[in-house]
Amino acid sequence: MNKRILISLSVIGAVATIVIGGTVAYFSDTEASTGNTFTAETLDLKVGDQDDPMVVTVVRNNMQPQTPYTYQGYNQQFVLRNAGSLPGTVSWTIKNVENSENGCNEPETSLFDTTCGTGTDQGELGQYTWIKWFEKGGTHGSFGPFNLFNMVAGVKVTGPVLQPGKILNAYMWLDFPQRLDNMENLAQGDGLKFDIEFKLDQVNL
């Protein structure tokens, strides 16, 4: 066999090796998972079964001093319901407090009340009114002690965890007690106006 024939056979062998190597395959099996979807859960707080704008107006006229912590004539109940699918911690904060003076009468000026203008920070009703939150007819009791109204402005009150579909009867108790020094006379004719922001925060499981 001459040299040319040997070269030719070598070329054929190389080509055959390439062809065989290019046709090697492995067993395989493919399955498909279809129709995968993701849905977010919901967290939805309703107050008196209402969403924003929530029209729940508390009006208390002709407030007068009473025996301390025994009179319950200035109260309001808020029914808080978790209408979502996740548990959440309910809380509320008193905001936008306005203490209106509405002028000064003789009992006020006799106590040297000099804030007799029309500003929303000149009245004394919030200075002598006490507030307390508690659950009416439930097992959570009260949410903190009695505090002067002006001191709780902007302070968050934390309630219990509300499971989906559960409610909390949050009760706001306002008390305008008598004082031995008659300093409550400074609040005669004064006005108190405020907003309450209710909130439901997801519980981290």
List keywords for this structure.
alpha+beta
Largest sheet: 5 strands, antiparallel
Average pLDDT across residues? 82
Number of strands: 8
Kindly state the percentage of residues in helix: 10-25%
Low-confidence stretches: 5-9
Cα distance, first to last residue?
Answer: 84 Å
The arrangement of helices and strands along the chain is: HEEEHHEEHEEE
By secondary-structure content and strand pairing, the structural class works out as: alpha+beta
Strand order within the widest beta sheet: 1-2-7-4-5
Count helical runs: 4
The domain count comes to 1
Strand content: 25-35%
Shape: elongated
Describe this structure in words.
This protein has 205 residues and is α+β, with helices and mostly antiparallel strands. The chain is 16% helix and 30% strand. It contains four helices and eight strands. The strands form two sheets. It has a five-stranded antiparallel sheet with strand order 1-2-7-4-5. A three-stranded antiparallel sheet has the order 6-3-8, with no helix packed on it.
Topology (SSEs and partners):
Layout: H1 3-22, E1 45-47, E2 74-82, E3 88-100, H2 106-110, H3 125-128, E4 130-135, E5 147-148, H4 149-152, E6 156-162, E7 167-175, E8 191-202
Antiparallel strand pairs: 1-2, 2-7, 3-6, 3-8, 4-5, 4-7
Give a brief outline of the structure.
The protein has 205 residues and is of the alpha+beta class. Helices cover 16% and strands 30% of the residues.
